[in-house]
What does this fold into?
Amino acid sequence: MMEWSFFGGTVNVRHVVLTGNGDDAFDWSFGWVGNAQFVYTQANNNTGNRQIEADNGELQPAALPQTNPVIANFTLVGGSVAAQNSEGVLLRHGTAGRLHNVLITGPVGMGECLEVDSMVETQTHAEDGTLVMTNSIVACENGENFKGNATPTLTTEQWFLGQSGNQAFTTTEALKLLADGYTPKAGSPLLGSGLDVASTYSNPWFKTTDYIGAFDGNTNWMEGWTYGVNSGIPKSVVAADVQGLAVDVSGSYPSITDKPVYRFNLDTSFITDAVLTNDKHWVIKGRTAVGNDNTDNSTLYIEPGTTIIGEVGDDFLVARRGSKIQALGSASSPIIFTSIQDMTGLLTGVGQWGGVVLLGNAPTNLCDANGDDVATAAELANCGVNAEGNAGLYGGDQPHDNSGVLRYVVVKYAGKTVASGDELNGITFAGVGDATSVDYIQVHKNLDDGVEFFGGTVNVRHVVLTDNGDDAFDWSFGWIGKAQYVVTTQDPVFANRGIEADNSGLHPAATPQTHPLVANFTIIGAASVNSEGILLRHGTAGDLYNVIVTGPALMGECLEVDNMVETQGHVAAGDLTMQNSVIACENGENFKGNATPTLTTEAWFLAQPGNAVEPNMASVVTGYLTNTINPAMDMNAIDSWFETTTYIGAVPSNKDWTAGWVTVGLP
It folds into this structure.
């Protein structure tokens, strides 16, 4: 963690982290001709100057040997105090160089983000192509992305935007980054936009990449050895135990020896921001809530590698409307929610504690107050629906509501049945908006559903649902979100359906109407008649692509459309579709029911593009990995939120995104 300066030489550097330094972060001059790849810099808001200061020679800008490095995959984050000269990149004093896959970003208050000086030698290099910058992004919020003239006829902005693969944004929001400010989420313009520098320069020293910036969105190479890196948790946030909300009860759990155990009081409410640190285990008691309903709005931050424990079915964590849970785990340090039995080596099973609930202000058709099946704008604005498990109220008129982040989060052995039709799911999304980020989550052995969507607009990606007690993936009441990469496996004793899809059981024509867009599902049933594949019912609409439904002999039906007029009406109107999918069940009952009054479910399925029936499980999956060659739909061509796909099912054999963080439940 130091300022790096290169005074000539040929040294190459890789995986460099520079945080909070007093002057420039990465500084070169006097003829440096080395290579650099994977560099992260983060300015100190109170000190510091430039993230890159690049020279040949201040007094002799034409001196030889000439500075001419090749750099790639830099993420440069400026500070917020321009008075302290926090800036991005300054190319000056005759430097040459080849810069690729560079992200320059920074907040309001920062100085300029990219500048080329007015020196003849520098501008000559920019003009003749010995100073280049390609496949890079400048995205500063200061109103000064660029400064100066790169050549006598081109401003720095014109020079930058005239080169291959470069982009400029005026907000960091456009980058689609996680709360840490550097990790790209799926759909970020950083991903898939980079130059393969190794191939371009025929230089095997460089690692092959296809992204801009230092991070690919999946692997944080800084984790575990660095200090002072932004975690997305403001330094002003006080830990829960320091706030007096939890006390050390390690003596009550003698078998837990790796970390101290802290326990919350019954029905704790976080009404100011707090953090659960990963140097302790945390036991929740009763309904542990973040905020009150659209009042006392607060955020509960959870560090990577933290474990949260419940002891009975009444113990659950809920983020109420207006508040957030920021659970930012990682592949090597996921955040674990589990039971005390799991932590103490006792027998584990479904229903040993409550679960996780997010309550948001996004629309749901349950906001219909007078029973006319139309939730009006006024009804949505004044909505408050009681969530299952007495968790609180949800619903509203804010489709872009934000309930926080769940990333690399595992929920195990949870669930509680309060009453018939009133249960705690592994993770409940009730009226949750699409500004919420959900990526890489698992629910294992929940008493009721793995995940359930009660209206809302939230999108989810990379979901693992294993051995849950009822349905794996359940939607209803107007959910219009998106989902990609979902794998479900079923338990022969407890399971019901891989997907249970409703608009509303009592009001199947209610609006806003359920109509998600989902893709790349793998549903693997179990040897039980209660284990089923997909049931489309109660007036749901929706579009399903790249789905595999498979299972062994003795499993129940694999694809069913119910006989409700509203459901079949969506089929006839083209509002309920399924394409580029495969049914491969060994039970003799691939299909059940009629999709329309004149079409069986089988005839409807086979009449749609890209669908097929295969004879057995082995023809479509190896374990849970896709092996079928049935053609896939490129989902990115349909909606830019989706990643480009060349396979059906959730997990391709050459890219197992479950590896490392999913340690239980998959075959």
In short: The helical segments are 120-128, 156-161, 197-200, 340-344, 377-381, 565-573, 601-606. Residues 4-200 form one domain. The two ends are 43 Å apart (CA to CA).
